[in-house]
Write a structure and sequence with these properties.
Chain lengths: ~300, ~400, ~325
């Protein structure tokens, strides 16, 4: 005789029936509530999409007419003088960002590697510091750059690189550490079993495996560094002329946009829009490119 | 067209100067100046003086300054003029670039005190308190006028096409917040027949330390001493209803985009951006529209200006525009680098003299410096010495 | 585990052998860590040294003073602290519900074919530089606000007393809305990331019990993702607090405490960026002091964000972009 698993007197059966009844009786109300709530979510999606699309739309609408041969080959000219462009600002941004990146990436990645391999209290303090520093207000980095470099040296592209590099460094450290930590322990241990030195392990195992994450992190940090305005406003002074030498004052795209946006002269405002479009395009290319590159490298490594 | 020296057809001389850059201008100038009438204080001939005969030679030598780049910063009042003049200078010299940043007179003075720039521009010369911040070892500071301009009271009144008339006390009331609407009795009293809206007035003022603010409030203090209590200064404690924007260009843009607003901007900005601006009552009781003629008329009432006596607002004269002022270039008398020093004095000499930068003034809606002021500038610049004591301004 | 190098002296107290190249390698890494640490310390010390004269001359109370008028010796940071907090508050009050709702929509409601494209788009928008938002806000949004939005709000919501001020153009509300648009992508991207990692079994279990989709969200998914969402929220807040140029371009520069959403205001970053070039002496020192205050506020908020996000295990979710 098989014992029945369920019997009418079993309390769990009662509970289940109660739940089913409650569910059935409130179904219509709950369904309505669900539809309303989800409808609100759709509404919020629509509300979110409108301004974001509007920003991109206007930047393209007003920026594209500014893109001419002159825009990319001529430096800025005084208001009313035709033929002006943003070439000096483009060069300035490139030089300042390249120098800032060239310093921040090696230091940041090595620091990230250090943190990925360390456990001590010093390491966690540094980790916390890097975390907090990714979010400090950029104007404070600007005043630091002024005091540290401009006061002792002079307004220059280097002072701007210092400030921009300072902003990029914690971002690279954290992204690097995350990427390096993502390397499976098994790979590390296998290499150690083969007798490899720590440095060799790092070079041949950790870095290549972490490379996709590292590249994504670095490119995103560069994209951020490109767009920073406040730190540059206090350090590079600006320049109407083309200047390749970073020890001199330079122009840059974000500061150009900032100063030309509030001008009454329409030709200057148009240059601001053109520069804004250029920044957006470059940042998007870097962001998308970093994803594509990371995916490609991940596939390659399989 | 403003005629400084009624004995000379300046029109053709000016056209020839602009066309035949540099040396040709110098040649014509020296030919003309040798037959000019002398400066007197009579009202019929030019009160501005005559240019020295060696001007042409100096102008030519100015274009041979050592190559490189120079930084300068300060007043946005003078910025359109400096931008154009320096751009033209570099076009002629090819080797020397002048990087001028308009950051406001106050910031320019601070940069000069810090030693960040070899010369600065300010619409109000450095006061004793500013001069005290320059280290004594740097030596004396030279301040010379570089251009003459007016401050227009620009406004944005939709639906009103007639030009508004305003006087000192009314302007004081608008900018200290006591007169709040466009159809207030003080304004309608000055503008009979003009239908003014009942909208609130939005005063548009400077957020940064500004020489233009100084000239404007200097006028308010002079024209309305009992009712204007906020003083004459580069920074003012404006009422909460005022919209504060940095730089002349910022205020101009703000007025253009804000209906029912009124603010003060250098005349060049107002004209070049086709803004509406008011006719202001001068000391003689006439309502004067700012223009090159009326600004020059005001300046001609006081041709002897110095860093300690520089205000030319509210001068007598039937056609004087009362809110006018010079802008000043500031540099050290003892230059520590022969190259930079030579660059500074030659650029400034070229910019402040006829045959050089001053020829661009009219086209940009500024008034060229009177010849007497130009001569005085050169005398000052000739005292600038390099590290070994050599005179840097040479012919 | 054996190494192929010749035996080297053991480090006392350590369980493994350190060869010279290993020590060199570790040493090099440690050096960079020290450099970074020194940089952070240099930053804090520099700003504090520059700010010190203001505190020794004026004490500490000036931070809460209500008037900023350096030419009369009055330094009060309260209008700017309030402006910073208020503009940020507007931004997060808008961004939290709208961002979360959008994240829910992107994670669960939008057809799955469209999901990757939309999500990527939103994340890419987080990288757009803030000066571009400022330019757009100044030229495109400000006129719309002045002509349509603010008059409408004043007539519809004037009774709340929030819209009493003069309608000048630049305003606290406009700055708050620009900040909202700027932090929205961050809020959406991070929230979406934490929403989709809630374990599937829990979701399916709830559905099996007969819960509606909203009930599943409310009772299962959101609570599970709660800490991560709060982390996203605080990260977004941190970014809004520190924003300089986009706000300075649209908030007006009124050094007075704003009494309505319509009025001009100022924030600590806008105060610093507008006055830095012309300040000397006590005023310059006071600006550094303002920077320190801002730093403190920012560090507090960011520490809270990092702790919250970290405690849910989503370490990579907080990489900030574009300011």
């Amino acid at each position: 005789m098989t014992a029945l698993l369920e019997s009418p007197a079993d309390p769990s059966v009662e509970r289940r029936r109660a739940v089913r009844e409650a569910a059935a009786s409130t179904l219509r109300r709950r369904k309505l509530g669900s539809q309303v709530a989800l409808g609100v979510c759709w509404l919020f999606l629509a509300i979110a999409v409108v301004p974001l699309i509007a920003v991109v739309y206007y930047v393209i609408l007003k920026g594209l007419p500014a893109w001419s041969v002159d825009f990319f080959t001529h430096s800025t000219t005084p208001e009313g003088v035709p033929g002006g462009g943003a070439w000096n600002a483009i060069v300035g941004t490139v030089v300042i960002t390249v120098i800032g990146t060239a310093v921040a990436v090696p230091v940041g990645l090595l620091c990230g590697l250090f943190l990925a391999e360390s456990q001590g209290r010093a390491a966690s303090t540094l980790r916390f510091t890097a975390d907090v520093m990714t979010g400090i207000p950029s104007i404070t980095v600007g005043i630091f750059g002024y005091i540290a470099i401009v006061r002792n040296y002079h307004y220059s592209g280097l002072a701007g690189s210092f400030a921009v590099g300072f902003i990029m460094l914690p971002v690279i450290i954290r992204a690097g550490e995350t990427a390096f930590r993502g390397v499976p322990r098994s790979l590390n241990e296998a290499a150690m079993a083969l007798g490899a030195r720590r440095a060799t392990i790092a070079r041949k195992v950790v870095v290549p495996t972490a490379l996709p994450g590292v590249i994504t992190g670095v490119l995103l940090a560069v994209a951020r560094g490109l767009g920073e305005t406040a730190p540059l406003l206090l350090t590079i002074f600006g320049n109407q002329y083309l200047e390749w030498n970073p020890t001199k004052p330079m122009a840059a795209l974000p500061t150009l946009i900032y100063s030309y946006s509030g001008q009454p002269y329409a030709d200057l405002v148009q240059i601001a829009w053109g520069a804004a479009l250029l920044l957006v395009v470059v940042v998007l290319v870097l962001s998308i490119g970093s994803r594509l590159l990371a995916a490609y490298l991940r596939k390659e490594h399989r | 067209m403003y005629n400084r020296n009624v004995n000379h057809p300046k029109n053709s001389r000016r056209t020839a100067t602009v066309v035949a850059l540099g040396l040709a201008a110098a040649a014509l100038l020296s030919a003309c100046s040798s037959s000019s009438s002398t400066a007197t204080t009579t009202t019929t001939t030019s009160p501005g003086g005559t240019l020295s005969a060696s001007n042409a030679a100096f102008i030519a030598a100015d274009l041979k300054a050592p190559g490189g780049s120079l930084e300068a910063s300060g007043s946005t009042f003078v910025q359109p003029f400096f931008n154009a003049a320096f751009y033209k200078y570099t076009g002629l010299n090819q080797a020397l670039q002048i990087n001028y940043q308009g950051v406001g007179s106050g910031a320019g003075i601070t940069a000069f005190e810090n030693g960040s720039v070899p010369f600065a521009a300010s619409d109000v010369p450095m006061a004793a308190s500013d001069l005290a911040k320059v280290p004594a070892s740097s030596g004396p500071v030279i301040q010379i006028p570089d251009i003459l301009g007016g401050v227009a009271v620009a406004y944005n009144l939709p639906g009103v096409s007639a030009r508004i008339k305003l006087d000192g006390p009314t302007l004081a009331g608008i900018f200290d917040g006591t007169i709040k609407t466009w159809n207030a009795s003080q304004i309608t009293a000055l503008n009979p027949g003009v239908s003014l809206p009942s909208h609130t007035i939005t005063p548009e003022v400077r957020a940064d330390s500004s020489g233009t603010t100084y000239i404007f409030t200097d006028y308010l203090t002079s024209a309305s001493p009992t009712t204007w209590t906020l003083g004459a200064s580069k920074t003012i404690a404006w009422p909460a209803s005022a919209v504060q924007t940095p730089k002349n260009s910022g205020v101009a843009a703000s007025i253009l985009s804000s209906p029912y607003s009124i603010g003060y901007v250098e005349l060049s900005y107002a004209i070049q951006n086709k803004m509406s601006y008011a006719a202001v009552k001068n000391a003689a009781g006439n309502y004067v529209v700012p223009s090159l003629n009326t600004v020059a008329a005001d300046a001609d009432q006081k041709t002897s200006v110095s860093p300690t006596d520089f205000s030319i607002v509210n001068q007598p004269g039937a056609t004087s525009y009362p809110i006018s002022g010079y802008s000043w270039a500031i540099l050290l008398q003892k230059q520590t680098s022969a190259t930079t020093g030579a660059q500074v004095v030659k650029v400034l000499d070229w910019t402040t003299h006829t045959g050089g930068g001053q020829d661009l003034a009219t086209g940009l809606d500024y008034v060229a410096l009177p010849p007497a002021v130009q001569n005085q500038n050169r005398t000052q610049l000739l005292t600038v010495t390099g590290p070994t004591g050599q005179t840097l301004l040479t012919k | 585990m054996t190494t192929v190098e010749a035996p080297v002296p053991r480090q006392a107290g350590r369980g493994r052998r350190w060869s010279l190249p290993d020590k060199g390698y570790r040493g090099m890494l440690a050096v960079t860590a020290v450099v970074f640490g020194a940089l952070a310390v240099w930053f804090l010390v520099s700003v504090t040294i520059q700010a010190e004269p203001a505190f020794s001359t004026l004490g500490f109370g000036w931070i809460f003073g209500g008037t900023w008028n350096p030419s009369h010796g009055q330094y009060g940071l309260l209008p700017f602290i309030l402006g910073t907090l208020e503009s940020t508050a507007i931004a997060v009050v808008l961004a939290f519900p709208i961002g979360l709702g959008t994240a829910v929509a992107l994670a669960f409601l939008v057809p799955s074919r469209v999901r990757p494209i939309l999500s990527t788009t939103v994340e890419l928008l987080a990288a757009v530089p803030s000066v571009v938002y400022g330019l757009w806000g100044l030229i495109v949004l400000a006129p719309v606000f002045r002509s349509t939005v603010e008059p409408f709000l004043t007539s519809a919501l004037g009774w709340t007393g929030l819209f009493n001020g003069p309608d000048n153009g630049p305003s606290l509300l406009l700055a708050g809305v620009i900040l909202f648009i700027m932090i929205l992508p961050t809020m959406v991207a991070i929230s979406r990331d934490v929403l989709i990692v809630v374990p599937n079994e829990q979701v399916e279990g709830a559905r099996a019990l007969g819960a509606t989709r909203w009930q599943v969200l409310r009772k299962v998914v959101l609570p599970g993702a709660r800490t991560g969402i709060l982390g996203a929220f605080t990260l977004a807040t941190g970014r809004a607090l520190g924003e300089t140029v986009a706000v300075a371009m649209v908030i007006g520069n009124s050094p007075y405490i704003a009494h309505s959403l319509n009025s001009s205001a100022a924030t600590i970053p806008s105060l610093i960026v507008n006055n830095f070039g012309e300040s000397t002496g006590t005023e310059l020192s006071a600006l550094f002091g303002a920077g320190l205050v801002l730093l403190l506020i920012g560090i507090l908020v960011n520490s809270a964000a990092r702790w919250l996000v970290w405690s849910t295990g989503h370490e990579g979710a907080g990489v900030e972009v574009g300011r």
